[in-house]
Structure formats: structure tokens, C-alpha cells
């Protein structure tokens, strides 16, 4: 019997386990147990979806969506996962019905936006839960940021009608870690909001941190579930801007959510002495409802490729028995695991989480959730009742080895189609030889750095030379695209050194056009020079599609002094005209790139514009 119960313990996370019972009510988002009669004595909690934190990605970079942070239903029913894309350029998910799915980040195209929005739907046949996350497309590895992390407190038990105060959540703002005012920044609370996702509706006061968060417990025995969402520090905080129903138009990066359960009972049965827990990482103990950063730096030989996070719980408190649970809340996994790794980011073995280093110096966030169960016997039937104690959060931060040179990668000049007439760069043409010539910039000049090109999307091409080698160009022949649309290819360029770490990659996305489709033609009027503090007009409204389709425009700054590109006035939605304004202290050469997209064919033509900053320019 003991062995059977322990097996159930590994399956169940929630209030009870066992067969269906007439006084058990399934609780999921939107359910109201108070509407059921008779009053509830035991409530079954359904799954609580967790799609993970918002992410950043370069076009052509593999991205992983991980829903394994979802809290499973209490009775161990099998879960069904479904990933849906709600917005952004369409991508192909490797398996939309798996808790973990992958795709390759698309190019940022005119009119398509730079945010991909995904919804995770989790069902167990009795209850349903949803979550949502955003992948932000960026064009420089310098902008590959990490979302913050947030955890809620311990489960609360209360009596019907009592006032309940929800403790503030615990945060860790990853953007603070490299700031000069790091400690002050970390001590500043993140914008956050609580929302109720299950149980009889209550009037939640101070839900978004404007004061203490509290409510009056319902008059019926029940289980309430609250969700906390938080986003990064911002000039204009929008604490309600995260979550499955929030408006994500201009939302700062959101953390993975956490959930808090409140059990309402006429006769509490948990007692005053609750289990104690802690998380141990590299000799440091992180207590309940605490968050700490563990720095992993120094010389290469002293930096671990993996380390263990060990969760502990006190089984002696009354009758509770300890079952640990870990989930990753931050981190970009390697494309391929290191030798001996069971998982790409986090491996679980009992009360121990094996945390593996990221593909380049970066962060891995681990939440330790201490769950406890106790055995209850009613009517000759033994069930398990569950409780979550306060979790702990560890952010493991791998920094660049001090004895290795820092390397910056560049995918090099974009290969253009053979019919391109400079300064325009048109899509590739089938059968042409394509040359990829990335470059690396090292803090230790003169030391050779082997480099690698790796195809991440599209029909496989034969790169020559194929293996990682000295920094020399790679060549391939452009494949034949479908007759009615361009073929998309994506590549990843990165340096290879003797360590387990790789420097930040560069990516390159290319189009191959069918011979019967012609790319857009660019007509651009731009100034020969602009003075510091001056303004001038960039007008590409004369550009056109040879096939008569609508064209859309996208402007971006490649290099030079920071410039502002504003609208010209009463223009159409294609934004073909921009007003360029420079700051008073601008100097040097401003480089902009214009992309013109044909909505009819999907083809893109690019043009780079160089504008010197000259004192006294008209």
C-alpha cells in the first residue's frame, strides 16, 4: 500500500488523489464551485497552464516554447497540450501538441511586426487552462535580453468569511544585473498584478500592488486559485499588461506566471506547524519565498558546465510528506545537449535538478516548488491531500571566462541575386552560387578563431566547406523554389573555441525567388548629408511592385548616431515616407536600410543608404 501511495504522489499535484467522488468538483479557470450544491468538502484542482516567460530571438534562430512549467491536475490525469499562434509572421511549430515545441524565428518583414504571440491550452478532460507568451524578434545579439522572474508565496488555508491578505510576490529583475545601481534596481518591485483564475469570485483589493492585496473568503468551503503576472521595469508601467487576456501591443517582457492557492475550510486541518524548505546551490541556501543570483565566472576551468540545485523539505512537520518539483523559468537551451545531458536545460532526479550551462554566457532560472502530501482516510478509502509551501528562486548566471577573448560575430554582407543592380539587393535566384562570409572581432587580435555556419531553416543545402574551420567563406548553390512563392533559408554563424561556451551568434535569412516573379523596384529620394540636430525627408513612395501588388516599407538603422524616423504626415499605411531627425551631438556616418515588400509575391528588395553628418549641411 505504501508503494502505491508513493507512486500516486509522483503523479498528483493538488488537493486530493483517488477515484471520482460525488462531492468532488473540478476547478478550472472560470469555474464557480459556489454554484454547486451541496457545499463542497473536497475540491479537485485542474491544470494551471504555464507557457514560460517572454523571449527574444534573432531571425533564423531556433526558439523553444516550453510548457513543462504547467502545474498538473491533482489526480494525475493525462494532460493534452496545444500551442496556437495568435499574432506575428506565421511559423511552423515542430509539434503543436507537445509540452515542448520548437520553431525557427522568421525575418522581420514590412507590415508583419516583430512580435510572435503564442497561446498554450492545457486540458485534462475535466478542466482547461490557458496561458500566453510573446517572442520578440530583434536584429542584433546585443538585444537578446531575458525576461524577469516572479514567484508567489505559500498556499493559504482560511475559514469561510475571513479576510485574507495575499503576501507580495518575490521578483528578480534580470535587467538589473549589469547596471551600476544593481542593488537599488533589484530592490525596486516590478509592476505586477494578481488575478483570480478559479473558485467562487471574490472582490480582490489592491490586486496590482497599489496597496495590500486582500479579499473576504467566500461563505462556502472552496478552493481559490490566483495568478500573479509581472513585467520588466518600464518608464510607463502597465501591471495588467501580462497574462492570457492582456493587450500585448507595447508590453515590456513578461515573466512566467506563478499561482497561489487559497483553501477555504470550516474546520482547518493543517495546523500551525507547516513544513520548512530550502534550495541549496553551490553551498548557498535560498529560503522559502526568496530569490538569489548565483554568479558563475572566473577562469574557464573554474566555471562548471553543469551544477546541481538541491531542494529540501522537512517531513517531520505533523504528517506531511515531501515531493519536490522544479521548473525552468529562464534560459535558452543549447541546440544540442552536451555529452551525458538528459535534457537541454534542466534534468530532474529526485530532489536534485541538474542545471546545464546555456549555449553562450547567460542565465538559467530555476524555481523549486516544495509540495507536501498527507494521507486522509474516509469511508475506508485512502486519499492524498496536497499543499504547496513557499517556492524558492535561483538565477544561475554564467559570465564570460576572464581568460578567453571576447568575440563579436557578424554574418557579413548579405548575398544578393545575380540580377541585382547596386545599391539594391534583390532575392537570390535558383542555381546561383551563394557565398556566406561572416566575420569575427576578437578582443585578442591575431588569434585564429574557427567559425561555423549551420543551416537552421529551409531545404538542406550543401555548404562547402561543411565543417567548422578557419574563418573562410562557405558556398552553396541556391535551390529551386516553388513556382508561386519565394523559398526561405536561414543560417546561424558562430565561432568555435576550446571551451563549452559559444559567443553570441549571428544569423542570416535569405530568399530565393522563382524566375517568373520579379522583386519590388525601389525609388528613393534621400539627402546627401544632414547637419547635427537637423531634419530631412526620406521618400520611397515611388517604389512599386512589377506585378501591380501593394508594397510595404520597413526602415531600420544599421549604424551611426542614433536617429529618429517619424511619419511625414498624411501618408498611407505603407509608411513609404519618413522624416529623419538627428540629435544635436550627432557625428559620423549614418547607415539606414530600407526594405520594400510585395504583398502579392512576398518578395523583398533592400537598399542601404549612407548619410554623412556634416556641420552646416542644408
Shape, principal axes of CA atoms: elongated
* Strand arrangement in the largest pleated sheet: 18-17-20-23-22
Sheet-strand content, in percent, reads 35-45%
Instruction: Give the biggest sheet.
Output: 5 strands, antiparallel
Radius of gyration: 28 Å
Instruction: Name the helicity range.
Output: under 10%
Poorly predicted regions are 1-28, 30-41
Q: What is the tally of beta strands?
A: 40
Number of helices: 2
Name the features.
Immunoglobulin-like, 5-stranded antiparallel β-sheet, 5-stranded mixed β-sheet, disordered N terminus, 618 residues, mainly beta
Task: Describe the structure in brief.
This protein is 3% helix and 39% strand.
What does this structure look like?
This protein is mainly β and 618 residues long. The chain has 3 domains: 397 residues, no CATH class; 106 residues, Immunoglobulin-like (Sandwich), CATH 2.60.40; 78 residues, Sandwich (Immunoglobulin-like). Helix content is 3%, strand content 39%. The protein starts with a helix and ends in a 6-residue tail after the last strand.
Question: Secondary structure elements and their pairing?
Answer:
Elements: H1 2-11, E1 24-27, E2 42-45, E3 55-57, E4 62-66, E5 80-87, E6 100-104, E7 115-123, E8 128-137, E9 149-151, E10 156-158, E11 163-166, E12 170-172, H2 182-187, E13 192-198, E14 213-216, E15 222-230, E16 258-264, E17 277-281, E18 284-286, E19 291-296, E20 306-313, E21 321-330, E22 346-349, E23 352-356, E24 363-378, E25 381-388, E26 392-398, E27 407-410, E28 424-425, E29 433-436, E30 439-442, E31 451-457, E32 474-477, E33 487-495, E34 506-512, E35 535-539, E36 551-559, E37 564-567, E38 577-581, E39 589-598, E40 604-612
Parallel strand pairs: 1-2, 3-8, 10-16, 19-26
Antiparallel strand pairs: 4-6, 5-7, 7-8, 9-12, 11-14, 13-15, 15-16, 17-18, 17-20, 20-23, 21-24, 22-23, 24-25, 24-26, 27-30, 28-40, 29-32, 31-33, 33-34, 35-38, 36-39, 37-38, 39-40
